[in-house]
Amino acid sequence: MAAGLKTIIALSFVLAIGFLLVILSAALFHNFLTLLVVATYVIAPLPNWICGKCANPDDFIGEGGHAVVDFGRFCTGFLVVMGIALPILLAHCALIKFPAMIMSIVGGLLIYGTIISFSQFFREEQDF
């Protein structure tokens, strides 16, 4: 029980640092376009989750539904790459400053890493 609590505390601390970096990248440089990164990283795990649930609705079928899972992984990968590429594109177009881009990318990666770590640590194991 203590290891689970320590994991939740550590993950929440890292998540708070990620949100802090993204919010500071917007607030310090007076440009709130960097907050779009939060939306992409929060939405990124949803295709994996939805396609994983839709892939095998019947417990009696062992194989099948790999195309749906692959599509979910593709969509998740697209959103993660978009979360990294969007601040780079905005900095290239001079809509945001370079330090805001760095803070936004690092904060976004911390947010997505925390979401993935949480789902890996607290995954329900299915024993059949």
TrEMBL record:
It is found in: Membrane. InterPro entries: Vps55/LEPROT. The keyword Transcription regulation does not apply. It comes from the Eukaryota. GO terms for cellular component: Vps55/Vps68 complex. GO terms for biological process: late endosome to vacuole transport via multivesicular body sorting pathway. Belongs to the OB-RGRP/VPS55 family. This is Vacuolar protein sorting 55. It comes from Corymbia citriodora subsp. variegata. The lineage of its organism: Eukaryota, Viridiplantae, Streptophyta, Embryophyta, Tracheophyta.
